[in-house]
């Protein structure tokens, strides 16, 4: 049986390789196991299907994030807990999504230093950027603007994934309980 509630948008932001997708997928598994309607919007997957054709200029990145935000809002409006995992490097566009959303919005800063992300480099982006093969890589030749006041910070270079997942869930449960009661 699926438990219904008003939706929540949980926005995971951070550098490539920080651990956004890993944490989001584990949170998703936990929510689903508790019968909470949930969905993951992964930035890479959205780019392949909804934002195909967009480049990596600031304008295109912002448009990509607006599209993700739009889909997240539609899902949240229908009682889904939406876990967005996207670099979303610019603070202003994240704030825009927060302020235009009718759903509860939880920003999760998945924090790891660039050198740690370069070591992890799951997609080989940093290696390609540092060798000159790839341009406009966030953290190398394109800026990342960390959140100023995120609801949650997950320092993945200092703690195991389970601790980050637990921190997100501890923040979510009261939101989900209050929405179910209301």
Q: What is the rounded Rg?
A: 16 Å
Mean pLDDT: 91
Helix content: 40-55%
Widest beta sheet: strand line-up: 2-3-1-4-5
**Low-confidence regions:** none
What CATH architecture would you give?
A: 3-Layer(aba) Sandwich
According to CATH, the homologous superfamily is: P-loop containing nucleotide triphosphate hydrolases
Q: How many distinct helices?
A: 7
Strand content: 15-25%
Question: What is the N-to-C order of secondary-structure elements (H for helix, E for strand)?
Answer: EHEHHEHEHHEH
* Count of folded domains: 1
Short description:
The chain has 182 residues and is α/β, with parallel strands linked by helices. The chain has a single domain, classed as P-loop containing nucleotide triphosphate hydrolases (Rossmann fold, 3-Layer(aba) Sandwich). The chain has seven helices and five strands; from the N terminus they run E-H-E-H-H-E-H-E-H-H-E-H.
Question: Can you tag this structure with a few keywords?
Answer:
Rossmann fold; 5-stranded parallel sheet; alpha/beta; 15% strand; 182 residues
Describe the model.
With 182 residues, the protein is α/β, with parallel strands linked by helices. The chain has one domain: P-loop containing nucleotide triphosphate hydrolases (Rossmann fold). It has seven helices and five strands.
Helix/strand layout:
Blueprint: E1 8-13, H1 20-33, E2 38-42, H2 43-49, H3 58-77, E3 81-85, H4 91-100, E4 104-111, H5 114-120, H6 125-130, E5 152-155, H7 161-181
Parallel strand pairs: 1-3, 1-4, 2-3, 4-5
């Amino acid at each position: 049986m699926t438990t219904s509630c008003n939706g929540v948008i949980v926005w995971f932001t951070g550098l490539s390789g920080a651990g956004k997708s890993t944490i989001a997928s584990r949170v998703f598994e936990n929510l689903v196991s508790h019968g909470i309607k949930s969905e993951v919007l992964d930035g890479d997957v959205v780019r392949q299907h909804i934002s195909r054709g967009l480049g990596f200029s600031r304008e295109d990145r912002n448009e990509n994030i607006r599209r993700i935000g739009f889909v997240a809002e539609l899902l949240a409006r229908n009682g889904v807990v939406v876990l967005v995992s996207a670099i979303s490097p610019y603070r202003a566009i994240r704030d825009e999504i927060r302020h235009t959303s009718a759903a509860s919005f939880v920003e999760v800063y998945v924090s790891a230093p660039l050198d740690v992300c370069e070591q992890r480099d799951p997609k080989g982006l940093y290696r390609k950027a540092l060798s000159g093969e790839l341009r406009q890589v966030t953290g190398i030749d394109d800026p990342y603007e960390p959140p100023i006041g995120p609801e949650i910070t997950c320092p993945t270079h200092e703690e195991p994934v389970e601790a980050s997942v637990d921190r997100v869930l501890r923040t979510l449960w009261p939101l989900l309980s209050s929405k179910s009661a209301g």
